[in-house]
Amino acid sequence: MPDGLFIAWRTAHSAIRHGSSDLGGCRMVEPAFHTVALVDIEGFGDRPNPVQRQVRADLYKVVRTALTEAGLDPARIDQEDRGDGILMVDPEMSVLVLAGRFVRELDDGLREKARTSSAIARIRLRVAIHHGMCEHDGEGWVGAAVNTTARLVDAPPLKAALAAADRANLALIVSRQVFDEVIRHDYRSIDSSTFERVAIDAKELCGETAWIQVPGYAYPPGVAAMPTPAPTGTEPKKPKPKKRTSRNGFVFNGSTKIRVEGDQVAGDKIVNGGGE
């Protein structure tokens, strides 16, 4: 399908699916719960303009092929251009499929593309996945879920992981919610042991956590592991008081009163029981 026809068909389809009366603007009636994914090209701005143009064309081809191979219909998923990336939003897009099969297909597609691309045109991606409430205002997608996804894809720990993974084609970050609700359950297409928890300190996500995975690595490189929190409701054990002992003095055993008068002893003296 020609690109122009594809875009026009997708816009009309999305408008109908969301119950919009404005096909041109794809205006939603009200906010709804959506899956949100964002792919971003590493080092895109450092390349000459002609190379950027080619890289963008390659990105769209690789992403749409990966979606198709993962069983997701690119025509159903709203794709918003971000210059050096693509924002994908859909109420029916499976987080499990995205984080599992789609990421694997995307990794394979990028590896295949790298074989026929020069070093300057190689694509390495940062990928973020989240879900939550958002809406389309006729110009683009808006909502906390979109903001969170954008913060995650630019998170320093994700950039560090991809920079440290020389042979990797992409690095994935998922929100705490996505990990807790999907990833940690170890469905067939997901291996939670390959994810590592990281701290996020970016604007409204200050103090938040997320999870990073780098396909091809058992553990994401360049990432410092966070300490594991203690289970809820547990308290650290208090140390037992040490038993007091006497050195070069008296040790009294018993409950009766003991009085010592006029006695000098070198070393220890032990008195057991007895009266006054």
Features of the shown structure:
single chain; 276 residues; alpha+beta; eight-stranded mixed sheet; two-stranded parallel ribbon; 6 helices; 10 strands; 30% helix; 21% strand; globular
Share of residues in strands? 15-25%
The radius of gyration over CA amounts to 31 Å
Question: SS-based structural class?
Answer: alpha+beta
Count all strands and give the number: 10
Categorize the overall geometry. Answer: globular
* Separation of the first and last Cα atoms: 108 Å
Number of helices: 6
| SSE string | HEHEEHEEHHEHEEEE
**Unreliable stretches:** 5-9, 16-25
Helical percentage: 25-40%
Largest sheet: 8 strands, mixed
pLDDT averaged residue by residue: 83
Structure write-up:
The protein is globular and about 70 Å long. The longest helix has 21 residues, at 49-69. Helix 2 crosses helix 3 (95-115). With 276 residues, it is α+β, with helices and mostly antiparallel strands. The relative contact order is 0.11. The model is unreliable at 5-9 and 16-25 (pLDDT under 50). 30% of the residues lie in helices and 21% in strands. The chain has helices at residues 3-17, 49-69, 95-115, 144-153, 156-164, 176-181; strands spanning 32-41, 78-81, 85-90, 125-136, 141-142, 170-175, 196-200, 208-213, 250-253, 269-272.
Question: What is the topology?
Answer:
Elements: H1 3-17, E1 32-41, H2 49-69, E2 78-81, E3 85-90, H3 95-115, E4 125-136, E5 141-142, H4 144-153, H5 156-164, E6 170-175, H6 176-181, E7 196-200, E8 208-213, E9 250-253, E10 269-272
Parallel strand pairs: 4-6, 9-10
Antiparallel strand pairs: 1-3, 1-4, 2-3, 4-5, 6-8, 7-8
Helix pairs in contact: 2-3
